[in-house]
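Appendix C reproduces, verbatim, an entry submitted by the partner laboratory led by Prof. M.T., so that reviewers can inspect both the input and the predicted structure.
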Amino acid sequence: MKRINNCKDLFCDIRQKNEDYFDGIRKNGGMNLHCRALAAQLLWFAFFYNFGMMLIPAKDFFLSNVIILAIVTFGVLLKGVAGDKLPCWIDDYIKGKFFYKCSIDFLNKWIFALILLAVGQLFVNHNLSSYKLYGRKK
């Protein structure tokens, strides 16, 4: 690993890493495929976030997000302990990295389906929030 002694070395290091990043994008299908895969990956996260919010019985925004944060923290700690023993495809499917291996036509279908699912979840979650939970008075 090359030591960085001044600002010029720092900028050269940043430029080299950016060139490597964009070369990797060009080799794996170009910017069009990369941006679509990134959009599908963000919708994938939104889908599972909304799904988690629907499963949590607490409708208080702060409390429900603290519960999700605790679950994610537990998952990260569990991955640190058992990460070497898990197959790499589990991590790829959780993070949505498999979208980078899809064709553009298939990605378009995924993006459309995930948009419909995320919007549908928001509609269902909004309708569920009107119910009383655990005997709360409204």
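Helices lie at 7-27, 30-55, 61-82, 88-95, 104-128. Additional entries are available on request from the coordinating office.
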